[in-house]
Structure formats: C-alpha cells, structure tokens
TrEMBL record:
Keywords: DNA-binding, Repressor, Transcription, Transcription regulation. Pfam families: HTH_18. Residues 160-257 form the HTH araC/xylS-type domain. One of its GO terms (molecular function) is sequence-specific DNA binding. InterPro entries: Homeodomain-like_sf, HTH_AraC, HTH_AraC-typ_CS, RmlC_Cupin_sf, Tscrpt_reg_AraC-type_HTH. The keyword DNA-binding applies. CDD domains: cupin_NimR-like_N (cd06124). This is AraC family transcriptional regulator. It comes from the Bacteria.
Amino acid sequence: MADETLDPALINTSDGPVLIVAAAKQETERSSGRHQHCRGQLFGSMRGLLTIGVDEGVWVVPTTHAIWVPPHRVHWARSHGPFHGFAVYVAEPACATLPAAPCAIRMSSLLREATLRAASWPPGPFDAPAGRLAGVILDEIGSLPADPLGLPLPRDARLLRIAQALLDDPADGRGLEEWARWAAISDRSLSRRFASETGFTFTAWRQRARLMRALEMLAEEVPVTRIALELGYSTASTFIALFRRTFGVTPALYRDRFQSAPGSEAGTR
C-alpha cells in the first residue's frame, strides 16, 4: 500500500515521472475502499500479507508475489497484521506493454530490489540512472509470468451473491442444493455455470475461499486450531493436511515464511 504522505493528485495524472514508488510500514491493519486512478499500480510487500480485490476476483498476497492492477480499474486493498509494503504507480502511456488485466506475478529479486531503490528517490524528474532503473522495473512487471493465485468471481448475479456470502462466511456449511434454493437457481445450473465462469467446481471454489481466509488469519496470528474450527473443518489435523497438500508446507511454517525477511523468500525467474 502506498505511503500515507503521497499526494493523491500525483497518481491521478500521467504527468511527471513514469514511475512513482511509495513504501509504508505499520504495525496495525490498514485498508483502502473501492477506488480507481489513471495510473496502473503494482502492490507488493516485504513483510506481512495483503488482500487485493477487483470486480473479477480477489487475491491474498504473500511476500513472494505482487498484484498488478491496470489504469482505471476499480480495486480495494487491506493488510493483515504487521505490514511493510510498497506501491508502484505507472503512468498510463507506459502501461501499454504491461498486462491488460489484473493479475498476480511472482516477485523476482531484481524487481524487489529495484523497487526498494526507487522508493528512496526524491520527488522530481529522473536523472539518467533513475531512468534506466525505471526501465528495469517496467520490464520486470511486463515479463514476469502471471501466477494463478487468486479467487475468480462469477459474473452471474445469482452466483455472485453466493460467492460474496461465502467470502463473508467461508465456514457456512450449506451444500450446493441449499445454496441453489437460496439463490433461486437450479442446482444443475449452479454447478455448470460456477465451473464455466470461475474455472473451479463449486466445492473447489469454496475450499479455495476457506484457504485464502486461512492465510489472512495466519497473518493476524490466529492459532491454527482456532482457524480450523472457525472455517468449518472438523479437526485441526484435517485443516493442516489440506493446507499442506495445497501449499506444500504446514500452516505454521507458511506463517513463518511470509513473516520472515524478504531476502530469504524472494521469488526468482
């Protein structure tokens, strides 16, 4: 998230430098409501966890990844627990060669270090070295592979109502048939359309929503057993086993990783 001292007018114009980079540290959670601006934005963190949302989906972002949002796209953001992060605002003309849709990218060490250097630049026009480094940052944003980290949202209003209810309460244990009745849609249509519009079956999407909420709770230092029970798992061991299958590590180790120093976990190409 951007530094609170950054003038909002700077990110609502493409005048000035091609990049504006801001950094922020805080020990408490921070959020920004739905908004848009004429510059594209890259969200990332060195410590802690971010949740970024757009109309099409939601991402829970550990320090290994960053989220790109193109110009004029409505989005919102919030941090979880202690947080140290950055925002890169890209002038609209320079976004022509960058991803056209919001996406998650795996952070490279080069992108992370270049961004941190740029965050220390004084306001004003770039000198030659700064201009070259800005080009490196743009090249990295444009060339790093997208990562399917997020949770796509359905477009159908009835399905979107179900998805939003599950995001509000991932532990809701109603089955597909009950949700279909609640949203006034046939269970067969719900199943078929959910898969076609999100790329996930209804059951897989709900499981992914629960795991994304688990990541947020881990960042907030909620005990693993409490996370399991609050998200509707029958036992902590069931939750831990599913988490390990999905992320390759236990919840406790995952929490340690995204709270550790960025150099120990920075992504590479």
